[in-house]
Specification:
0% strand; 2 helices; 60 residues; mainly alpha
Length: 60
């Protein structure tokens, strides 16, 4: 069975994995890891949406 992802879906999955790894590697307690992981994921989402809009406006 072949799975097909859009660029957007692949980027969001990558953001989730990177946020989780960064949280586990850089923080000591579970609470710090969770907070840092959610904050990092939020910033990834903001960046992805911001860059997507810039590319959209740049190609108009």
């Amino acid at each position: 069975m072949k799975m097909t992802l859009t660029h957007f879906e692949a980027t969001l999955i990558l953001a989730v994995f990177i946020s989780a790894v960064l949280a586990v590697v850089t923080k000591k307690t579970d609470e710090e890891r969770f907070r840092y992981g959610m904050r990092s994921l939020g910033w990834f989402f903001v960046t992805v949406f911001g860059l997507a809009w810039l590319m959209y406006l740049g190609h108009r």
